[in-house]
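Allow me, if you will, to draw on your knowledge of protein folds for a short while. A protein sequence and the structure tokens that stand for its backbone fold form the material at issue. I would ask you to consider whether the tokens describe a fold that such a sequence might reasonably adopt. Thank you for your consideration; the sequence and its tokens are set out here:
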Amino acid sequence: MADDIFHPDFKAEPYWWEFAAPDPRNTEGPPARCDAVIVGGGFAGLNAALELARRGTAVTVLEMGPFGQGASTRNAGHVSSGFNLGKAPSSSERSPALRHLGEAGYGALLDEAASSFDHLETLIAREAISCDWRIRGRFVGALTPRHFRALARKSADAPGVNIVERADQYSEIASDFYHGGIAIERSGQLNPALYHRGLMEACRRQGVTLVAECPATAVHRSDGGFRVDTPRGEIRTDGVFVATNGYTGRLVPWLRRRIIPLGSYIIATEPLGAERANALIPTGRTINDTKRVLSYFRLSPDGTRLLFGGRESFRPIDERGSARLLYRTMLRVFPQLQGVRITHSWTGNVAFTFDFLPHLGAVDGVHYAAGCNGSGVAMMSYLGYRAALTMAGGNETSAFERLAHPARWFYRETPWFMPLVGRYYQFRDARDRRRAATGDPT
């Protein structure tokens, strides 16, 4: 594809950074001693730090780069209330792990997923975070008639979920690509960089020490607590929370074996004008689909651009290469955008787990939260908050703490198998579309 898809002012960085760029400031050096150390300054880490500090705990947050450089400001800003919880990428039905939990266990997870949405909404209001937060709902487009039937079965008794037949989908999206879908009313959207910046400001108001450019290199048991090693000195502390998610390295090898980092890619179009942009998604909802190689998209908060994302490559690829792939996919959904140019292209790591579920827990006394499988704005915020309650001595456990966190014998640190899995998923998606085009009901 020719480079004429790129705007002259093209940037290989998130569109969101136009509003809140990464913050390299070190409020101060790491202290020699504090009550709790948080490793990772994203949504989970900052939520944990904020809640602990509100309870009188002296907290230090370590970030390996500038604050706001990681995945928390690289996502699309879609906010789920849990409807997709545990959905395997090869199916619009529940993952096997959820089926094994039974209805009671599944219900407990759904309740907490709903609580994650409540937590985010309450937090934004309490801390007066200006981040373009709004509840517009979400439309899930069905790749094939069979996918539509599965969505309809799943949502038949779900409150606030409406089935949208293909004949009616233009009320949701100006595209013939999908075979109907569902509209979920309780779903939101925000500017993730502004939300992240607001969390940092809230932490500073509570006296949290934020230390940028300072990775944790090792954690050791020491004198009834922990010693956290950094390039800028060691920290003695009573508790440690690792919130590195899709950027989890060797600090906790047990956790690294249970997290699969996978790149997800997003492009932003040049301004389309409010009328043209709003015609694409009349309701202003966020949109995703039932493809195994997922697409997800929304309008920018000012209603003038399309932000289009997906997992277009399962190998490392640069921002221009991913933009070309995403542009092709975007035109399959919206052929009317032919000729529109791209102003931004970026990527961030999504943390997958083998059971497609988020996890919260502790290993050797080190607390962690990880694995939201691409739906992490509300859930990672909530899991960070719940980790803080546990670290502060709370007795109530989360349903996500009670889950077994599986590993696989063939995986250590490098997800060598993901290109093979990705190619297989792409083949399955293409085969399903061909069958749907010929009227094959399977």
The domain at 3-437 is CATH 3.50.50.60 (FAD/NAD(P)-binding domain).
